[in-house]
C-alpha cells in the first residue's frame, strides 16, 4: 500500500506537494473512505462535505482537484484545527481515502469584555475612552452539540448594554442533511443610547438619573435549505418589540415615526448565499455572494412597513503563494422614504465601512461600498506548544502575517438631506492606506491600519476582524 501526498494541510503551514506523477495511475476507483481524529464529531457531518464517493472512478488529476476542494469544505465547518485527505493506493487502480482531522475545543465558557461602540477608534476618539461603555458578562458557547455541528449559545451581559440571549442552530433535521432550523431570542436594555447623528458622528444621550432608555425584545425562527455544497437558502420569520423612554424624543423627535414610544413589527426575509472560500474567516481564494430581501411589517397593525434589499459579493484571487487580491462590493437599499432610527443603515455600520472613515457614520436609504486589498504574506509559521498546553485542541499555534495595501470607496444616498449630516452624504467618498493583518489561533484576526480619507484626514486604527 502506497501513501501519496497530494495537497496542503488545511489549518497548518503550507507543505510542498509531492511530484510523483510517474507513479500515479491514470484512473482510480475509491473503495473506502476512512475518517480518523473525530473523537466527538459524527462521521456523517464530515462526509456531508466530501464530494468524492466510493465505487466511483476518477481521473487522477480530477481526484487531486476534488481532494483539495473537499479539504476546504471540511475545514470551513470550523470544527477542526487541521484537515488532511490522503489517497492510499492499494492496487493498480484501487485507492482508499484517509480523512484525518484534529478537533477544536467546542465548549467555550466566554468572559464577555468588549466595547459597545462600532470599533476601537470610535471608543478611543469620539467617546474619550470611557470605561462606562464597556460590556461585561458571561456566555456559554457549544459549537458542536452532540457531535452534529449544532450550535448552542446562552449568555448574559451587563455594563453599557445589558443583554440576555439564547441561540440554538441545528444545521440538519433530515437524514439527507439538506434542511435545518435555528431559533434565537434576545432581550436587552440600554441606559445610554445613540439618539441621532450630527456632523456624521454618533450622538449619545443618558438621563440624569441613569434610567433605562430602551428595552428590546426579539425572537426569530430560521429555516435553512442546502441543496448543494456551496449554495444555501434561508427563510427567516421573527418579531421585534422596542420601547424607548419619552426623554429620547426630546433629543430626536423622529427617533420613531409613528407617534408612539413603542415600536412593534413582524419580519419575513429570504437570504441566498453562495460560499466557495478557502477559509471563511480569512479567505485568500474563492468567492462569496449574499443576497437578501427583508419585509418589515407583515400585518396592518405593524408599526413599520418597508422593504430592504442587501447584496454582498466578495472575490478572492490568489496570484501566487505570497500574493492575493481581494475585492468586495456591498449594497443596501430601503424602499421607504425614512426609517425609524433603530433601522438606520449606512457607511460606518457593519459591514459598510470605508477605511479612513472609522470615526464617522454616513446614514441614508441607499449605501454602496467597494473595498479592495492587495495582500502580501510576510510570515506563515506554526508552533507545536503541546509541551506547555495540556489540551490537544490548543497544541498547535499558527501565526500568519499579511501586509495589505487598501483602497475603499462608496456613496450614501440620503433622500431627506438632513442638514447636520450633509458633509458626507450624497457624495463620493474614498479611503486608502496600508495595514498589517495577523491571523492566528482558531483563525482569529487582528488588524493594524493607517488610512487617509477623501477629506485628507489620516489616522491609525486597530480592528479585531477581517474587513471582508
Automatic annotation (TrEMBL):
Query: Does the keyword section mention Transmembrane?
Result: yes
User: Where is this gene product found?
Assistant: Membrane
An example GO CC term for this entry is: outer membrane
Query: Which top-rank group of organisms is this from?
Result: Bacteria
| Residue ranges annotated for the POTRA domain, each copy included | 28-104
Keywords associated with the record: Membrane, Transmembrane, Transmembrane beta strand
- InterPro entries recorded for this chain? Bac_surfAg_D15 (IPR000184), BamA/TamA_POTRA (IPR010827), D15-like (IPR039910), POTRA (IPR034746)
The entry's protein name is Surface antigen-like protein
Q: Which organism is it from?
A: Mongoliibacter ruber
Lineage per the UniProt record: Bacteria, Pseudomonadati, Bacteroidota, Cytophagia, Cytophagales
Amino acid at each position: 500500500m502506497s501513501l501519496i501526498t497530494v495537497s496542503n494541510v488545511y489549518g497548518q503551514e503550507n507543505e510542498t506537494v509531492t511530484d510523483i506523477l510517474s507513479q500515479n495511475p491514470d484512473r482510480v476507483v475509491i473503495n473506502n473512505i476512512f475518517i480518523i481524529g473525530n473523537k466527538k464529531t459524527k462521521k456523517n457531518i464530515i462526509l456531508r462535505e466530501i464530494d468524492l464517493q466510493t465505487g466511483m472512478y476518477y481521473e487522477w488529476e480530477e481526484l487531486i482537484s476534488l481532494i483539495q476542494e473537499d479539504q476546504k469544505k471540511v475545514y470551513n465547518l470550523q470544527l477542526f484545527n487541521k484537515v488532511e485527505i490522503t489517497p492510499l493506493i492499494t492496487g493498480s487502480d484501487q485507492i482508499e481515502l484517509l480523512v484525518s482531522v484534529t478537533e477544536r475545543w467546542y465548549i467555550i465558557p466566554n468572559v464577555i469584555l468588549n466595547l459597545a461602540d462600532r470599533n476601537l477608534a470610535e471608543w478611543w476618539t469620539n467617546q474619550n475612552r470611557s470605561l462606562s461603555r464597556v460590556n461585561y458578562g458571561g456566555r456559554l458557547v457549544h459549537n458542536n452539540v452532540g457531535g452534529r455541528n449544532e450550535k448552542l449559545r446562552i449568555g448574559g451581559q451587563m455594563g453599557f448594554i445589558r443583554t440576555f440571549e439564547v441561540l440554538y442552530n441545528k444545521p440538519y433535521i433530515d437524514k439527507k442533511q439538506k434542511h435545518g432550523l435555528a431559533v434565537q431570542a434576545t432581550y436587552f436594555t440600554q441606559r445610554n443610547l445613540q439618539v441621532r447623528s450630527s456632523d456624521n458622528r454618533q450622538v449619545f444621550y443618558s438621563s440624569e438619573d441613569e434610567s433605562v432608555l430602551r428595552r428590546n425584545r426579539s425572537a426569530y425562527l430560521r429555516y435553512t435549505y442546502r441543496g448543494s455544497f456551496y449554495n444555501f437558502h434561508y427563510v427567516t420569520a421573527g418579531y421585534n418589540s422596542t420601547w424607548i423612554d419619552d426623554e429620547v424624543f426630546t433629543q430626536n423627535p423622529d427617533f420613531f415615526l409613528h407617534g408612539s414610544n413603542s415600536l412593534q413589527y413582524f419580519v419575513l426575509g429570504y437570504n441566498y448565499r453562495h460560499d466557495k472560500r478557502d477559509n471563511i474567516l480569512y479567505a485568500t481564494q474563492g468567492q462569496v455572494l449574499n443576497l437578501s430581501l427583508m419585509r418589515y411589517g407583515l400585518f396592518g397593525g405593524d408599526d413599520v412597513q418597508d422593504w430592504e434589499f442587501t447584496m454582498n459579493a466578495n472575490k478572492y484571487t490568489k496570484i501566487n503563494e505570497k500574493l492575493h487580491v481581494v475585492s468586495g462590493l456591498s449594497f443596501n437599499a430601503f424602499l421607504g422614504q425614512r426609517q425609524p432610527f433603530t433601522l438606520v443603515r449606512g457607511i460606518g455600520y457593519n459591514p459598510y465601512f470605508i477605511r479612513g472613515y472609522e470615526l464617522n457614520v454616513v446614514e441614508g436609504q441607499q449605501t454602496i461600498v467597494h473595498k479592495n486589498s492587495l495582500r502580501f504574506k510576510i510570515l506563515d509559521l506554526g508552533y507545536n506548544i503541546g509541551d506547555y498546553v495540556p489540551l490537544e485542541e490548543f497544541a498547535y499555534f499558527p501565526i500568519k502575517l499579511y501586509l495589505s495595501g487598501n483602497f475603499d470607496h462608496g456613496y450614501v444616498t440620503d433622500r431627506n438631506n438632513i442638514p447636520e449630516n450633509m458633509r458626507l452624504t450624497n457624495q463620493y467618498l474614498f479611503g486608502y492606506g496600508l495595514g498589517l493583518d495577523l491571523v492566528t489561533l482558531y483563525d482569529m484576526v487582528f488588524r493594524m491600519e493607517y488610512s487617509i480619507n477623501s477629506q485628507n484626514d489620516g489616522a491609525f486604527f486597530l480592528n479585531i476582524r477581517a474587513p471582508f
